[in-house]
Input
Amino acid sequence: MHNLVRAIGLAAVLCSPLTAYAQISSTEARPTEVAAAGKSDEAAVVDTIVVVGTNQTYAATATTQPMLDLQTPITSALDIIDDLPGVLINEGDPYGFDDWSTTISIRGFSVDLGQQQIGITIDGLPNGNSNYGGGAKVNRYIDTPNLGGAEVSQGTADIASRSHEALGGTINFYTNDPLGSERMRVQYAAGSFDAQKFYVRYDTPMFLGDTAAWISASSQDSTDFFEGSAQQRRDHIAAKLVSSLGGTRLTGYLAYDDVHEDNMNSVTPEEFADDPTWDRLTGDWTGVPTLDQMYRRAWSTLRENLFGYLRAERSLFGSLDLNGALYYHKNDGRGDWIPPYLVDVIDDNGGPESELDRDTYVRGGDALGRIQFVDPNGVALSPDPACTANYGYPYGGDGPAYHPACYPANAQPVSSYRHTNYKKERYGLTGDFSWVATVAGFDNTLRGGVWYEDSNRDEWRTWHRVLVPAVGPNFDHSEYWRQYDRTFPVVTTMYYLEDAIEFGDLSLRGGIKQFFVELERKDGFQGGATTATLDSDSDVLFSGGAVYRLPVDGLEVFAGYAENFAAMKDGVLEAGATALERIEPEQADNFDVGLRYASRRFSGSATYYNIVFDNRIVFVAEGTAGAIDYLGESSGAYLNVGGVESSGFELAGDYRLNPYVNFYAAYTNNDSTYRGTGDSTLDESLGIAVDNTVAGSVEQQYVVAAHLRKDRYFGGVSYKWVDARWLDAGNTQRLSEYALMDLYAGVAADMISSVLKGYDLRLNVLNALDESYLGGTDGGGYSAYIGAPRTVVLSLSADF
Output
């Protein structure tokens, strides 16, 4: 509660009672959008070619309309940034359905199953973490046809950015505005792997003076590209409103997303070499639990997300801008796996196993053992000690205890359907001001703001018996064991203050920022009692920079420095062996310096960066094995284990040859290495390979693209090459380089008749050369996800 009081007090001092939202101040201009506000979903002419921001003290790039054209209506919103310098997006399926296998990498920082080091915002508001357990990426908030674009700040991000996991920069995805004129758009897309999508959006005419809105709905589905058993489904409803009320601009947005994903599995390089078309999951039920633990339809993610905000912006006296927002987010769902045993949670003294009784319900406690087979009376059996049968699959096989040949002929297999259940609810407010004044004859801008968020994440794990394992995966919806039940309240307060002054062609800025983050763990088995608390406050974080406009028109040099911070995640509180008082939050010192140039035909940038990341937090497990630890029984602790240092340079450019054709290219050269703890003995015991290249980080990549739009015809091609990457921190296994070519072509026309206002017919071909490769790494250092093969999508949009 005292954090809420503190946030309100800071808001009153800095921002006045007005609530609204701030993007980027007028002196820290946002990269030019592809099309004018309110028209960003319309096809833009090619000569709006901007990929770099101007007058910014940090490196930032933005998507262009051709980058959106390269994507299909079914594709995840994440894919639009993959061609930007320094960015690598890998997804385990061609449409980005599977959040489990999605990874993001920027300058050696990652978002994957074990790391959240890059901030993501939606229309400038925080996404609430990107982790699998209770987090959400952009594809849960924005439907691709409603996407206006994205801005990537690769390192020293804008000081007002709302994220406490932005060690390696931030990505802001923004929705497009209402058209301001009446239109009904209907879209249908069909593609490889049984993919299809239905989408409809209605834009209102202006009403209530200068108010406009849109509402959309879509439904899409597909299967996997391995054996075609996955059931991927997503339904999305969204609406946006923009209005002016008494000189105040109001923006409201609301989105609901419901998804069912069957996951993709990662494979080792050796498994990929044996068969690059199989991720070792199966599409057929065998009736043998040790084999059926790899049944794809039981590797599932189910999620519902509801997100909305109300934003207001107002200018006073011609020099003071006030803005802020209120937002709300609710996340609800679960992750499924199918362990090849029942957990023995009741000692039945040799009698029939209680876990087979649908009325059995145990809360908490320890596992007494595992039950693989029972006799017809439900009594647990032990394998014949002389039997050595072993399937050798998966993970080398589970041994005789899981093989039916080691039991009597009348033995019956048993297994579980395990749910890890997630629920998250958060609300927050932001408030900002920007005051422009003349000081000693120079333009001066003072800006500041606050961010407050109250979040509660629930996580509980339930075990359900599979009804007849010999027949199919149907399970008893009544759980026989609730393994744990926890709630993690997190309260975040952030403030920032920055001053910028312009001395003719020289702009200077400096600012401070600080986070106050309070975490708790409450135990549902103890009536919600608090069992652990942790403060993850930052130091006062400094940032600053300079921009100098050179005598050559459109050319400027910039330099920026920022201390970025990542609060400790609530998962740290899950490890009972962790000495919480010994852990410090992660921090990264980012430095950028570079050149930018922008003219009517060409825009480009060249950036050098250096980042020093300290206090890296990892979970160090004891007794971990290669197979899945379904019970989560590996003991261990979260520890600070040194850090990472990244340096390199990025090049990007966009050239308009004529009004119809433009070319784009980007190149990244990155060197990310591990830094030790300072104690060589401790480094060795923790497995830290000092000076080794960071696992999964990109050392070199480039992209080249060409786009054409003339009259009603358009098309383009993009080619991206990614250098070989190290799979593990020990740098013993290397993933091969790969290259992907994407193509698109189409025809569009406006005002076909008084009824049909226009249409858009397009063909997209992703991975046109059908490259076979390993893409994103799973973060464990052993395996990676197989990249999607050639994917073809045909889509038709009609406007009425």
Observations:
- The chain is about 5% helix and 50% strand.
- The first helix runs from residue 2 to 15.
- The radius of gyration is 27 Å.
